[in-house]
Design brief:
Mean pLDDT: 82
Strand order of the largest sheet: 2-1-4-5-6-3-7
Shape: globular
Number of strands: 7
Bound molecules: adenosine-5'-diphosphate
Distance between the termini: 42 Å
């Protein structure tokens, strides 16, 4: 712990010279937490989240700090008032606030993925933007859609950008977190979350990890989990109240584990495939990951975007971190800042492999044996486009 505190002090000094250096701040946040300074660590994670609301490590880090700081009070509160822990939801990309903030991401922040943006624009953004036109044809904004695809490829990010593009607030809920609540609490919280989204309507209500309520785990499923599904169905069906103006988006890496009851008409009845980032998106993600770092002139991001087919957002971030480690080692050895350059990326590329290949192997199996209603057709179309591309590297 003492060692972590010393590291934190050294990192603070370094940050005083280079305050916008996100990797340093990340190291500082980790060291502070390790040293037991959760409140200070939370501030550093907060800074990283301001910079990138989709930064999963920062989000988890801040949550851990909050838990470290607030567990006893929060649990007392939950016991006294059933709504106490509703405050754990993530809103507008930020966790823990009681009120959603306007989302800050828009389609302009989503690199590439033109086809997906077009589809989301047509299906989600337009009905929110032009409600009168939709009403004239007897349609209205709202309903439920499920985003699926390999992990780390932008489902959460794109959902936030979609809400931002439509100019409506988004309430983000992690199913795993609701499941972690005490027996009986989960359903109440779910009801409260829906009530809040209806109050805010027009709004997007986003459920992450919908497969956590998986049908394939039927045997193991606790009554607790079953009750939560029933409650979710009641809320989705609008049996509890009118869901007009509430678009319910879900995300899953494992569509095949999603309870079929959740995919019936009026629920998450439409599915949208979120593929791995294309070259333009990869270039944007690399650019984001490199923000605040010293970059050499020979680093051509377009080149690295082309060489990273099949990489998820998380893989690309890992690649940049790996290259950063190498540049930093050189800087430490040489005693002066060493910009990230082509050779660091070349060495890093040898060690970081695309993680989406495995997902596609599983998805391909489901596409072959369980492609009712053509659910996996977009996956197959994507795969056949990829295999037709020259020079692909997997
Ligand atoms: P998922 O929800 O699919 O697991 P995330 O939405 O958390 O994945 O995406 C991981 C990260 O990758 C995001 O935080 C974001 O920074 C980055 N990312 C993914 N796709 C894009 C994109 N098209 N443009 C810019 N950044 C992206």
């Amino acid at each position: 712990m003492k060692e972590a505190a010393e590291r934190a002090a050294a990192l603070r000094e370094a940050l005083a010279v280079s305050p916008d250096n996100a990797p340093l701040r990340r190291l500082l946040a980790r060291a502070l937490f390790e040293a037991g300074a959760a409140a200070e660590a939370a501030r550093e994670w907060e800074w990283l989240l301001e910079r990138d609301p989709g930064d999963a490590e920062a989000r988890a880090g801040r949550e851990r700090c909050r838990e470290a700081l607030a567990v006893p009070a929060e649990e007392e509160e939950a016991a006294a008032a059933p709504r106490g822990r509703v405050l754990r939801l993530v809103e507008g990309g930020r966790q823990g606030a009681a009120r959603p903030r306007p989302p800050r991401l828009t389609f302009a922040d989503v690199g590439g993925m033109e086809e997906l943006k077009e589809e989301l624009g047509r299906r989600i953004v337009d009905p929110f933007r032009r409600p009168e036109l939709y009403r004239a044809y007897g349609r209205r904004a709202g309903g439920g859609m499920l985003l699926f695809g390999p992990p780390g490829c932008g489902k959460t990010y794109v959902a936030q950008a979609t809400a931002g593009e439509a100019g409506v607030p988004i309430v983000v809920v992690a199913i795993e977190e609701i499941l972690d609540l005490y027996v009986g609490e989960s359903e109440k919280h779910l009801a409260a979350i829906f009530a809040e989204a209806r109050r805010l309507a027009p709004a997007v209500l986003f459920f992450d990890e919908v497969d956590a309520l998986g049908a394939s785990r039927q045997q193991a499923r606790q009554p607790h989990e079953r009750r939560l599904i029933s409650q979710l169905l009641v809320e989705l069906d609008g049996a509890a109240a009118d869901n007009a103006g509430v678009l319910v988006l879900g995300a899953t890496n494992s569509l095949w584990h999603v309870d079929p009851a959740l995919r019936r008409p009026g629920r998450f009845d439409r599915t949208i495939f979120v593929p791995p980032p294309d070259a333009a998106a990869r270039q944007a993600i690399l650019g984001l990951a490199l923000r605040g770092k010293p970059v050499g002139e020979d680093l051509d991001l377009g080149h690295w975007a082309r060489l990273t087919e099949g990489f998820s957002g998380a893989d690309l971030t890992a690649l940049v971190e790996e290259a950063t480690d190498r540049a930093m080692q050189e800087a430490l050895a040489g005693g002066k800042v060493c910009p990230l350059s082509r050779r660091h990326f070349a060495a890093a590329r040898e060690t970081v492999q695309p993680s989406t290949t495995e997902w596609f192997e599983t998805a391909r199996r489901y596409a072959k044996y369980a492609n009712e209603a053509g659910t996996y057709d977009p996956v197959l179309a994507y795969l056949s486009r990829q295999s037709g591309r020259p020079g692909r590297r997997r």
